[in-house]
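Aminotransferase, Allorhodopirellula solitaria. C-alpha cells?
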Amino acid sequence: MHPWIADRTKTFDSSGIRRVFDLAAKLKDPINLSIGQPDFDVPEAIKEASIEAIRSGRNAYSPTQGIAPLRDAILAEVREKYPDQERDVFISSGTSGGLVLSMLSMVNPGDEVIFLDPYFVMYPALVRLAGGVPVMVDSYPDFRLDPDKIAAAITPQTKMILVNSPANPTGVTADQADLKAVAEIAAQHNVALLSDEIYSRFFYEGEFYSPAADNPDTIVIDGFSKSHAMTGWRVGYVHGPPEVIATMLKIQQFSFVCAPQPAQWGALRATEVSMQANVDEYRRKRDFLVGELSPHYELTSPGGAFYLFPKAPGTAGGAAFVEHAISQGLLIIPGNIFSRADSHFRISFAASDETLRRGADMLIRLAQESAR
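C-alpha cells:
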C-alpha cells in the first residue's frame, strides 16, 4: 500500500457490489435484478421545482442545516408524530451523509455499535471509519429483530444500537413489539439508538412504526432517495435530540457543507407528492416474485423495501450461485456482501414486469438445475 494512505482505510474493503458489476459489464441485455433504487422516474412536479430553483438563481450554498421551508415542513411532520418530544432536524447530503455524520458525532475509537447481520453494506465500514467496533447480531434464518439477542450483545463498550426497518438487504420489517423492546433496552443502558428509516414509505402491511415513539433520544435518518426515486439528488434528513443534531451539523459544516440547494427545493415539493400508487405497484411486484419463487427457494416474504433475500439452492453457497447466475445473464447480488455468511443472495424487484418475469423464470430454472 502507498505510504501516504491512512491506516483507517485498511479496516474495510471496497463494496463487493463493484465486482458484480465488473462481471455484468461483459453481458449483453442482462436480466437486471441487482439495482437498489426505484425503477420509476422522479415525478415531474419535483423536477419542475428544482428546475425553477436553478432558473431563479437558487444555486449557491444553502444554510448548513438546509433551506428553511424544507426544514419547517419536515419538522412539522416530526412534531405531529412526536408531539411531546424535543427534536430538531437538519438536511443531510443523502441518508449516507446522515449515517457518516452520526458515526463521527457519537462513536469514539473502541466504542461498539450493534446491528443485525445481514446488514446494509455501509454499516461495518462506517463504524470502522469512526474507529468503532461493529458488533453483528445473527438474525438468520428469519431476519427478525430479536430484543433478547440485542440485549445479550451489550457490553460496557456499547455506544450505539443501529436498527434498519424495512431492511436492506432482506426487506424484512421489524415487529412493533420488538422495536419497542429495543428502544427500551437502549434507554435502560443509556446507549444511542440510531434508526435508519430510508425505506419507511415502502411498507406493505399495517402502519410504519419507529422506535422514536418509545425512545425520545432516538436519532432517525430518512430521506427522499428511495421514496421519490431521487437517489442521485442527495437529499436526506436527520432528526433527534437537539444537542446531537447540533454536533452533526458542526461536522457537516466542515465536510459536506450542505445538500445541493436546487435538489432541496425539489425535495420541498416532494413533501406534497403522494407516492402511494408506486408503493402499491411494488407490493404487487413483491407478491408476484414471492409467489413464483417460494416453491423453489427458502425465503422470507419482505414486509417493506424492494428486496428479497433467498437462500441459494444446493451446497455451493451464495457467491458461487450468483457467479453461475451472472454467467447465464441474470444479475443478482451475493449475500456475503451484506453478511458474514455466504448462504443467500439479494434480488431487487425494483424492475419492470417483463424483467421480473424473465428473472423469475431464470431463477426457477437455476433452482431446478441445482436439485438434479
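The CA atoms of residues 119 and 338 lie 5 Å apart.
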